[in-house]
Design goal:
The complex is a heterodimer.
Chain A (H helix, E strand, L loop, with lengths): L2 E5 L3 E8 L2 E8 L1 E6 L2 H9 L4 E4 L2 E5 L1 H9 L5 E2 L11 H14 L8 E6 L7 H17 L2 E5 L2 H9 L7 E6 L4 E7 L2 E8 L3 H11 L3 E3 L5 E3 L1 H9 L11 H26 L11 E6 L8 H11 L6 E6 L6 H20 L1
Parallel strand pairs in A: 1-8, 8-9, 10-15, 15-16
Antiparallel strand pairs in A: 1-2, 2-3, 4-6, 4-7, 5-6, 10-11, 11-12, 13-14
Chain B lengths: L1 H4 L3 H23 L10 E6 L5 E4 L5 E2 H7 L7 E9 L2 E7 L7 E2 L4 E6 L18 E3 L9 E7 L6 E6 L5 H7 L11 E4 L2 E6 L13 E4 L17 E2 L32 E5 L14 E5 L48 H4 L30 H8 L42 E4 L49 E4 L14 H12 L4 H29 L11 H6 L4 E4 L9 E2 L39 H8 L7 H6 L3 H12 L2 H11 L3 E3 L2 E6 L4 E4 L19 H9 L4 H9 L7
Parallel strand pairs in B: 1-7, 2-14, 8-10, 9-13
Antiparallel strand pairs in B: 1-2, 3-6, 4-5, 4-7, 9-10, 11-12, 11-13, 15-16, 17-18, 21-22, 22-23
The chains are: A alpha/beta, B alpha+beta.
Amino acid sequence: MSIALDLGTFRFRSLRRIGENLLSRQDRAGYCVLPALASYEQLLRNGGVEFARCDDSLILMGEGSDDFAALFQLDFIPVVPNGSIPTNDPLSRQVLAAIVDAMLPDPVAPGETCYVTPPSGSEHSEERKTTEEFFGRLIRLRGFTPKVMPAGMAVVLADLVDTGFTGIGMSFGASSCDAVLAWRGVEVATAHIAKGGNWIDHTLANESDRYIWSPSGERLLDVEGAAKSKVDFRGSLLEPSARSDQLLATLYRDLIATLLQKAARDFSVAPRLNEIRRPIPVVCAGGPTQIDGFLDLLASALTSVALPVEVNEVRHTASGDFAVARGSLIAAELELQPQRQAA
Amino acid sequence: MFLRRSVWLLPLVVWLCATWNDAANAQNLVNLPNRQQPAPKYYGVIGEVMRPGVYQLPVSQITLYDFIQHVGGLTEDATSNIRVIRRGRVGLQTYYSENTRMDVLPNDLLVVDSKNASFSSVQNFDPERSRTHRTGGQGRGKGQSVQIAFVNLIHRPVVVEMSRNQAKVATIVKDLGQIPEVRSAIKVISPRNVRSQPQNKNDAEKSLDSGTVLIFNPTVLNNAVIPPMPPATVDSFMPSANRPRNVQPHRSNAIDPRVAAIPYPNHQTVPAPGPNSYSAMPPGRVRLVPHPSPNNSIAAPNNRMTTPPNVGPYNGNTVPPYGVNTPPTIHAPAPRTNPEAQETPRSAEPSILPGSVAATPIRTDDSSNNETAEESTATDSEPSANSTPVADTTTPVVPRVDPPVTAPAANDANAVVATPNTTAITPTPASPAAVPVSPVPSVAVTPVARPQPSESPNGQAPIYSAPQNPAAPSITAQTTNATTAIALAPPSTPTEAKAENSAANGSNNVPGGWIALLAIVACGFAGTIAWSIAKQDNTPVERPKPPRFYLDALIGDQLAVVEERPNRDGVLQFHGAPNKVAPRRIDLSDHDIPRPHFAVPQTTPAPVEQSVPIENTVASVAAPEKIDLEQLKNTQAAGLVKLAKAARDNSEEQQVSSEKKTGRTIRFDGAHKTEDLLSGQTQQHSDSQTPAPHASTRRSRPRANSVMQATEDGSSLLDRALSVVQPEGRKS
């Protein structure tokens, strides 16, 4: 059995094949803390909500925490804030380990391969490596052998079958974006930026003076409202009319331009660049790409950035939310294929 | 003797067989696109659209905008929020607009939400144009029915419309013939909550909202007992020409000319009826008529999941509905005195309507002699109440020569010859009172080529029961199934009949034997080819099986994704203090902000009159909400040390966050205002001061983090704690 693990800033997903089906698991990457009151505990038990205990608190993890955070006016605490492991929050790390454990089944045999796409919210490779090692330890504790797969490469494997796994895969996440240039299934070059959808939401809330008040009277940045306005966006990112649309389009243009400029620099020094002679497609995945007009904006930006390869089309992934996990699972199956054929 | 003389015919037969096989193969390769035809592409939509239902379109991909336009667009109450249920899970949610670039894939189910808070019924869709299939006898109509969609039940999504009182998981599971344990494996995606929820015992009896999607677990379903589902609507589709093409689509939306004519395995292709007679149909026209399933054709009328079938190409005035259980009554014929009654080919037309039995005007009693032949046919074609399903409905039609059975006495008008189970009508040419009818018991509606009337060498009327002696027709009846679909076999021309008789009797008439042999071989091959085509057409479209190597299926995106819940065993136990610092509100649930601010001022806690020991005070400050004197007394000094260590471990980022929440630091329009909780005064750190909207209502009650902040500032923790417990004017 092979399994793929997509650990995003917003949500964790796992995918594995059992028989003729793909079994998936997904959960929110966060938790909330309730006081350890008997009434709360009874309420959770009646609702069938799983919880954990922590001294004098009740910990709600995953999807349940999202709902109860809204119900009890609690703060939803992400376990991977900004795509990084919280270094000074032991409880968050324990919750993080519990959620990852829940994503993984028991391995059939020891040492099975688990392709993992860890969150990468840092510009520095050392910090990203620390994050990868942290998740690698968690996966090893479950009996799997972790192998790291960049999100962009997973998108290539998932959606560029028709071009022989040749093309550019772009993954726009909540805390980071990356672009991978692949040639025949081989990762040629990778570009990574520590910006994502959260940056857009945060900046949008800041620039548009979006604030809300908590029940205790505190004025807080309304990132949630900014994210919702982003989803409700109607119109064109290329030619925005309203002022708020212009701001949103500017942020998206900045995000895309940052990634493409980084890609232009990193791709230009790729070793196998000369072997890519024909135009290649670009496929993008991730939550920020779901906004109206994203592909138009990306296509427009591609014409203005001098990539070392020629692009013939830009498209969304056809695999939806599980594009990264599915690509990672394909990589795992590709690795197991010689063993199966030999058997 | 016959065999010896016919030896030289063997090569001819072999050559004929080979030629016929080659012709059949060539026909399959050239003219029959079914073998090369891709699987039908189904697209479903439910909710606030004008024509909800499941559509079979000849494109492998379609944009969301085009598909919504194809189904008539959204209703007035529709939101632009469209959820896409793909491979059994809600993985995608988009917004409908002309610029939406999203593609809809085969077997996707779109759910168009309503603006109204009430999901009890569908209000605004067009009931006349709806492509959903209503089930249940009650509660139909606009506003009284609900739309329910099934996913993973069969190979495509299913959208049905049922009355509200039947729209329950328990009822649906029962109607589907499944065991009650299947309920727990069904995920219900209600428009109230887009998350799929597993069913528990109580939820199964609750009425479902309109627009609810039931996602079945195919691994626990008993597919053998699932009744026939409503067929999909076969439509042609032309992509909108003015669709924005700024970005080149990655897949072609070109129309696939190979449209599957069989959208559902419960249907088969039969020639369409002509204006007057079955045999007068133009060649090439096809029409879908229901074909009784061998499993549950009888249970279909009582099954709410079953679509009422189309009537067959019968042109009579009264068409008995499929499955109406009425015992057949075959009346013995009386001697015909009116020669016009024998020349009624239209009335003698066989009906392929399931349940029809008689193909000839067999009511010959005195009271019905003057009735028209159509009425007689319609009356006698009512099916039997005790009928049983057909054993094999795909049996090719092969003429059978049965010994004639003479009818009862001609003057016995009320004689009933039919047995309860089956009835067949056998020609009795020898009897002057018998009407010969081709004996076809329990055969399926098979598109067997029938000779045109002009082909009849003797110019007889185009019915198979054409009497050899028109002056004295009579019928006899054998048993047949009243609910069996009947098709008449090709008529036996006199030449064929002669040949058959010769072959059967072993006659020495050699030319007749050749012709008979050739005819039998030809009929055999024709029947085989027809049977193979019919079988191919009737083969249910099963879920595509993955190839041998799952990697190919995985790459080809052919494996279904089944979602399971994350596995957490037991109640976990964590250790450590929760970090209650949240710089901003992050909950992303889809709800409106309840209020901009609460209007009820919070009461300031009463000043503590009683002095407490210093070592117990600081630890009690760590309690975030209130100060309990009893707790203060019971708290040990170790808590102080623990609190101080925790405060030192905080990073710089966390300090800023702590300051924002507990130190009441608000950054807004460049203003940086800090409210000192300990002193109760507000300090302004910038030129442009934005007044705090509710500074007066702020609590002056300390929090644990404020103590941490004080510690980071380097001041004495004990002094700070003491000042917190004892208000400003009471510091010692």
